[in-house]
Write a sequence for this structure.
């Protein structure tokens, strides 16, 4: 089987770590160069774009994309992991009304500082927080600025509340649930989590590992692998002349004349044969386009 360059929109099932998904895909696709685009908790499910071959160069770019989640918030329960897998630290009756819950939740829309949970893969002094947490050690965490772009309250059946959240990278939905519960005065934690979107990759276009394996056996992998350039479809496309293509293949800058057009910002560059080559960006200082990322 030929090595694959591109992106597969994996549906991560409950019980798998993101690392497990990558390991299993290496076996299914029989290639080593594979990377995921942002950790999902083992109990969480949903969209996990996985980059293959040359597309691993865009892993960091996909990690930065806006994400959407559907979560069930359990009020009246506080745990050390901020979800239902942890040890219960406190329980309380949920005496707030549905209107109070709605008002409180909507106050979390916008820019804010969020303190990452102890049970997370973030590192402090070289050690992952969850490793310290398992030893009973709690350390001070630096708040991180996040953006909650939108929260939709889908259902309220107290003590449970189902919400959909559109947010920036680095947002912990577990912590959001914990903070909402704290603001309501009864405590709260996350009961379940489903990631429904990462950038342009959506839940309805995702595939389980079993489905990917079946596509491999039926020689239909090409039908589910997105091109590396799919991450950049919002950028203008430029087909290069043979002369400009030679320069790009060596990472050299291009003048506006060589591009046959003058476009501010970033552009997608393709060979005359349609091969995706690079992302270039206009530099007014240099009066030319320079390489941002190469995909040769």
């Amino acid at each position: 089987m030929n090595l694959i360059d591109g992106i597969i929109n994996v549906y991560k099932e409950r019980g798998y770590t993101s690392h497990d998904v990558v390991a299993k895909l290496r076996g299914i696709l029989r290639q080593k160069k594979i990377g995921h685009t942002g950790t999902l908790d083992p109990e969480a499910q949903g969209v996990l774009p996985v980059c293959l071959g040359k597309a691993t160069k865009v892993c960091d770019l996909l990690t930065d994309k806006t994400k959407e989640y559907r979560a069930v918030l359990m009020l009246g329960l506080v745990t050390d992991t901020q979800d239902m897998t942890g040890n219960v630290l406190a329980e309380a009756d949920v005496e707030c009304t549905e209107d109070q819950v709605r008002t409180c939740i909507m106050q979390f829309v916008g820019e804010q500082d969020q303190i990452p949970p102890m049970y997370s893969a973030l590192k402090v002094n070289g050690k992952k927080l969850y490793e310290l947490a398992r030893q009973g050690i709690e350390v001070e965490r630096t708040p991180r600025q996040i953006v909650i772009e939108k929260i939709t309250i889908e259902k309220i059946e107290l003590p449970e509340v189902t919400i959909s959240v559109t947010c920036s990278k680095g947002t912990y939905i577990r912590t959001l649930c914990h903070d909402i519960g704290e603001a309501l005065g009864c405590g709260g934690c996350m009961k379940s989590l489903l990631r429904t979107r990462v950038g342009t990759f959506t839940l309805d276009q995702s595939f389980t590992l079993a489905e990917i394996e079946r596509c491999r056996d039926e020689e239909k992998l090409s039908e589910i692998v997105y091109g590396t350039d799919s991450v950049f479809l919002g950028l203008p496309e430029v087909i290069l002349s043979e002369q400009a293509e030679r320069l790009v293949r060596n990472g050299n800058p291009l003048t506006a004349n060589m591009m046959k057009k003058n476009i501010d910002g970033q552009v997608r560059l393709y060979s005359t044969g349609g091969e995706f080559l690079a992302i270039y960006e206009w530099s007014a200082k240099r009066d030319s386009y320079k390489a941002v990322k190469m995909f040769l």
